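Example S7 (structure tokens).
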């Protein structure tokens, strides 16, 4: 019997990371936000994070997903309080927020690395890749919509049962 691949010696199974090449072109096309990001791409990712069709070790608990989404919404609220126009396409309009946006990646890595937390490296990889695409307030707004779409499909697939 073949041994299960290990994840950096931590005793976890190696996770299949999703193909995120669809994010290579960013969030927008000439018409606006790319519709497929909020539709089929988000739906495919949500199915991956829900257990029965995906692998169990790719699962994300609903509480962990909500916790991270809460961090994102808190950052959005801070930006709105600072009167940042989330439709701006100018990177300098993010002011002091680029570092805080990148901090989201460390929060994901921390949660994904804990054994007592059900937040898969696949989910952390997806969100980290998407965070890397945020260069302007408009990108941040698109990131929120993309994440919100993943969450909607996740709950639609029955993700609330994953605790």
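Recovered sequence:
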């Amino acid at each position: 019997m073949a041994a299960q691949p290990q994840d950096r010696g931590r005793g976890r199974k190696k996770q299949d990371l999703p193909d995120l090449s669809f994010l290579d072109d960013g969030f927008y096309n000439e018409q606006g936000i790319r519709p497929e990001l909020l539709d089929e791409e988000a739906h495919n990712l949500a199915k991956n994070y829900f257990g029965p069709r995906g692998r169990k070790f790719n699962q994300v608990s609903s509480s962990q997903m909500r916790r991270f989404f809460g961090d994102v919404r808190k950052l959005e609220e801070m930006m709105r309080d600072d009167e940042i126009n989330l439709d701006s396409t100018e990177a300098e309009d993010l002011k002091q927020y680029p570092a805080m946006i990148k901090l989201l990646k460390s929060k994901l890595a921390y949660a994904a690395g804990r054994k007592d937390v059900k937040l898969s490296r696949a989910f952390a990889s997806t969100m980290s890749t998407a965070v890397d695409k945020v260069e302007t307030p408009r990108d941040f707004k698109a990131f929120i919509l993309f994440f919100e779409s993943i969450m909607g499909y996740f709950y639609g697939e029955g993700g609330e049962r994953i605790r």
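Notes on this example. Residues 62-81 form the longest helix (20 residues).
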